[in-house]
Amino acid sequence: MPLEIAEHAGFCMGVKRAVQAAMEVARSGEKACTLGEVIHNPQVVAELAALGVSPVQDIAQAAGRKVLIRSHGVSPDVLAQLKEKGCAVQDLTCPFVAKLHKIVAEGSRDGTPVILIGEQEHPEVRGTAGWAHGSVYVVNTVEEAEALPTMDRALAAAQTTFPPEKWEAITQVLSRKVACPEKHCTICSATETRQREAKELASRADAMIVIGGRNSANTKKLYAACKERCPRTILVERASEIPAGFANMNIDIIGITAGASTPDGSLKEVVTRMTDNESMDFGAMLAAEEQTKLRPGQQITGKVLTVTDDDVCVSIPGYKADGRIKRADLMQSDVKVDDEIEAEVVKINDGEGDVVLSQRNIANRKAWDALMAKYDAGELVVEGVGKEAVKGGLIADVGGVRAFVPASQLSQRYVEKIGDFVGKDMKLKIIEVDKQKKRIVASRKAVIAEEAAAKKKEAWDKLEEGIVIHGIVRRLTDFGAFVDVGGVDGLIHITDLSWGHIKHPSEVVQPNQEVDVKILSLDRDRDRIQLGYKQLQPRPWDNAQEKYPEGSIVEGKVVRITEFGAFVELEPGLDGLVHISQCALNRVAKVEDAVQVGQTVRVKVLSVDPEKKRISLSIRQVLEEEAFNYSDEIPGDAEFELFATDETPVEELPQAEDAPQA
After folding, report:
1. Judging by beta carbons within 10 Å of its beta carbon (0-12, 13-18, 19+), is residue 21 exposed, middle or buried?
2. Most C-beta atoms within 10 A of its C-beta, which of 6, 226, 498, 523?
């Protein structure tokens, strides 16, 4: 007749911790007591009492003794009363229960009502209610939940040993009764695992034995769950309560499980009784279990037991405790119950009895190995994303590996705000690796420099003297304009911007203006490119005769004055000379007496010599013609009067041929 023993039978972590601590106090001989029974198991309570640590029900009875707080916990008022009595206190509250206390205390600090889902008279529920700052409602059934008043908000939490399926049913009701419910599933994972495992075993077994104290709520729920699935289920506190001949009935499989407050000795006793074979006793089972050892860094494959908003609980084959993976360390987003997942052991005990697991560590190790394979193969440039600004630089994510980018390696210029790079994609070059410590130092600046060098080489390879190329004006200086011609800058000297005289390049071009330029010269050794802009513009002297025929009258601007005359700009790059003798109707001692620089004047073209690049102009002849035309309109002797304003006889005026030629 095979026996099948549930893997998670017996003491849970919280109870085991409390019992071990109580036994240590008892063996020390210290005068102590427990406030209530340390666990709901008469054998353990009797054993502690025999060692001098007996339970008391009233605080007054504890005077003069050290008081052990059982795993169910107590309210803050009870702790205060013990302090007033001068009692030394050793708190053995289960970590899961302590977490429940904290959730209730912090969540109700602003007066939010608390709904405790559990048994009204259970010591854990009574103790937890004392941590609430406002109203407290306790419900144990769907009907009790339906009877609650409607509320705008409320915090719901569960007794740590409450059945998960009942929690789900009750919280569905609360979603209708409370406008903004804040739900905290505080059911202990060990309890949930134990109940699920017992149900599965009871569904397969022909008979079930549930071992535990009859006053234990945890054991009673376990018994009820097994009885529902296997009618031939019995509840016993010790092996002697097993009915005679129970194992001789028409039974193929007997399943055995135990409540969270059942010591290993009671479980061993029942197993021994059923087998009548010491070699197959519970001690052997425990010894086999001890063979499963875990160590940090070990990789395991387990089945998902529960999934919450905070973490995922995973069974560890052959190991009594379960593992927990925090959401931040979980790489699978769609994980669900019964999925098999790989994880790495981070810590054997998280302080609450569970093994700390991480999937991220496995992913990080794979990412590191993949990156190092590329590094060893000479692939130093990688893709990264800025993650965090830290002292002295930036932390970047390189394919799942953290890399440090010093501030001096972020850019070719000084970086004032490193935080501006957070969230940005970037190319990085690995410049330092410490494989022992798994540290990487990378440079964005090096990549920029290499890309610039490659772009520069590519641009230079396309350049030839004499070709015309398209570019963009980047910046202006007093001596010229710098133009980007495909990734490298060339200079248009101010003398090559216009055929005419200009004082500043802004008179011809502006920053960001697109222009066509001619490459005048290349100096690859000195990285210098001389460009020409005016060379692509029409030369003013090429068609000067056609545009300014002799005898035509045009307008121009006086741009320069000399002793012998004034130079008038007809268009940029095309100046003509007005001889001093041609500046006015009357003789002038100085050119400035007739015209000023910047003045716009009408001139008559006397001659054009494209080869010598000379144009002779006359202001006087324009004035004479205008005066003559005007005299035609004046009757009588007005014409004589017009020319008699100068006392010098006309015949004595200098002739044009006597003046220097333009």
Report:
1. middle
2. 226
Phi/psi class of residue 65: alpha, beta or left (left: φ > 0; alpha: ψ in -120 to 50)? beta
Phi, psi of 635, rounded to the nearest 5 degrees = -80, 165
| The 66-69 sheet, strands edge to edge | 54-56, 32-35, 66-69, 89-91
**Three-class secondary structure assignment of 74-123:** CCHHHHHHHHHCCCCEEECCCHHHHHHHHHHHHHCCCCCCEEEECCCCCH
Tokens of 36: 């209530």
Q: Nearest CA to 472 among 485, 488, 459, 456?
A: 485
pLDDT more than 70, % of the chain: 90
Tell me if residue 376 falls in helix, strand or coil. helix
* pLDDT tens by residue, 489-526: 899 999 889 887 788 999 889 999 999 999 999 988 88
Residues 469 and 510: beta-carbon distance below 8 Å = no
Q: Is 571 a known active-site residue?
A: no
pTM above 0.85?
A: no
Cβ neighbours of residue 241 under 8 Å, at least 6 residues apart? Answer: none
- Buried b / exposed e over 249-285, threshold 16 CB at 10 Å, is eeeeebbbbbbbbbbbebbbbbbbbbbeeeeebbeeb
- How far is the C-alpha of 340 from the C-alpha of 438, rounded, in Å? 29
Q: Is 367 helix (H, G, I), strand (E, B) or coil?
A: helix
Which of these is catalytic: 37, 119, 124, 344? 124
For β-strands 323-326 and 311-314, DSSP reports them as antiparallel
Q: Cβ distance 396 to 442 under 8 Å?
A: yes
